[in-house]
Amino acid sequence: MTDERSDRETELAVWAAVAFPGRPWHRARHHHGAFHDVLLIPHVGALRVPIGDEASVRAAREVEVLRAVGRASLGIVIPELLTGIVESDGRCGYLVEALPGGAAPEAPWSRHRPALVDVLAALSSASIDVPLPPPRSWCGGADFPAVVTRDLLPRLGGSAAAAEQAVQALADLPPPRRPGLVHGDFGAHNLLWAEGRPTGLIDWDHACIGDVAIDIAPLVGAHGSAAVSTMVDDDDVLRRALAHRATLPLQVAAAAHLAGRISLRDHALANFSRRCNDGTLHDPDGAEP
Fold first, then answer.
1. Pseudo-torsion of CA 228, 229, 235, 238, nearest 10°?
2. Same domain, 19 and 90
């Protein structure tokens, strides 16, 4: 496995040197994500290479999203787009700014909470007059329910009815009273940190103008609704967040299916079924909307 990963890193660095010359790719650190390979050179840039089917289409959407977010007058630092998309030899990628800071420090919720509150406040005050796509564009957009019905339900066995109900509950939510700029994969894991404080917010691929509860949902998944309720003063937003959280594994599975990432799809579906069986579909604490 180590040799295989080393070969993959080397192959990617060789490709990067041709596609984006003049940068020390031999010094890059490789990060293998669910939908991207990333080569990071501190103080130089981060090369994002989408993995799977329709990679160029996804790259184009991600680049447009990052451009739009950059015009939203955010009160937090985000990566600047440094290049357009380069396609060659079956790959495509684009270079973004490498922001200072590192991964979230190991700390209890009480330590992370104030920083998360501040970043959410910055998002809520940002302009929504920017050309961002509809919610869940990364996993099918308006076709997300159809992808679940056609491609995922037949693979869910005894959990299929719960998946159908979760997607319908999401569709039945009334429009949010106040839509906002949504990151779409919000949490300490996508913040860069220095000296215990966030220095930037990265990975904007899921961004949209929509229900702010979308950004509360992953916090519920990470910390539980009881903890998150201490930073959300609107019970309706928290209730909606539980409905969004129930579909998160299905969203990953749908995106993976569309990208031809079969093992990731099946892993996400297994995660959905496990949560159903454990009674933690909406909330790791067991709460329901």
1. 20
2. yes
pLDDT of residue 283: 98
pLDDT digits (tens, 9 = 90+) for 275-289: 999 999 999 999 999
Average pLDDT over residues 135-155: 98
Q: What is the pTM of this model?
A: 0.95
| pLDDT band of 7, cuts 50, 70, 90 | confident
Q: CA torsion angle for 13, 14, 15, 21 (degrees, to 10)? A: 90
Alpha carbon 208 to its chain's center? 11
Domain span including residue 229 = 109-278
Domain identity same for 237 and 138: yes
Alpha-carbon gap, residue 183 to 185, rounded angstroms: 6
Nearest CA among 224, 263, 197, 259 for reference residue 52: 259
Question: What distance in Å separates the CA atoms of residue 55 and residue 132, rounded to the nearest whole number?
Answer: 19
CA nearest neighbour of 70 among 9, 10, 127: 127
Contact 284, 170 (CB under 8 A): no
Number of domains in the chain: 2
**How far apart, in whole angstroms, are the C-alpha atoms of residue 172 and residue 145?**
12
* End residue of a domain, out of 68, 96, 124: 96
89 — phi, psi (to 5°)? 50, 40
Same domain for 250 and 181?
A: yes
Q: Which helix (H) or strand (E) holds 195?
A: none
